[in-house]
Amino acid sequence: MRILILHGFTQNANIVKSKFSNTIKLINQLVKNIEWVVPDASNIIDEKNNLRAWYYCNADDPLDYAKYFDVECSAWYGLDKTLEYFKSINNRFDVIIGFSQGAQLAHYLLYNNIITTQKVVFISGFVFPWNDLYQNKISNVESLHVYGLADNIVSNGKTKFLINQYQNKTIIEHTKHHILGFNNSICKDIANWICRNYKEI
After folding, report:
1. Residue 15, domain CATH
2. Looking at 59-63, 133-137, 168-172, 176-180, which range is the least confident one?
3. Mean pLDDT, the chain, integer
4. 201 assigned to some structural domain
5. 44 belongs to a structural domain
6. Rounded distance, CA 118 to CA 144, Å?
7. Tally of domains within the chain
8. Which range marks the domain in which residue 107 is found?
9. Segment 39-94, tens digit of pLDDT
10. In sequence order, which ranges of the chain are alpha helices (DSSP H)?
11. For residue 82, is it within any domain?
12. pTM summary value
């Protein structure tokens, strides 16, 4: 099994592996010999803390996450570097897991056939602001959508727009906010969903 994890905005590979470690352990118990692909985003937006982004919207202040939800945002700085990376690697995965901006990127990559997978997990997911990019629903990928009812970063409405882009979908709601570390029950649910009916591609 080959699994890609895409971290969120102002994170990096080490942060996402740490916050998602309980679920990773459970997946490793269910399936052996997993190849974990957990890249750092190409754009460093805070050198002191090695915080990264797959792209950013405010050239003057790359740490400004609020611009993602600004309808006037017309440029995605650093996206070219991100796409260059994914076009240079083996793009076939069994599972893709994306958190927040990583979920946003995962959908963009899948929709545009830049990467392929059997299953995708969106955690606190949403899509690019220009919704007219997505005219067709994705029918050949199983999707799992995990989100918090109290999420104060990505509204439930934005998450549900992403959910509606997939025909084959499972939804896990929790009562917390914009998080990646879950209680043991949700970790088990995610791990079991990922490993269910696994077959090599």
Report:
1. 3.40.50.1820
2. 133-137
3. 89
4. no
5. yes
6. 11
7. 1
8. 2-195
9. 999 999 999 999 999 998 888 888 877 666 655 566 788 999 999 999 999 999 99
10. 13-19, 21-30, 79-88, 101-111, 156-163, 184-195
11. yes
12. 0.92
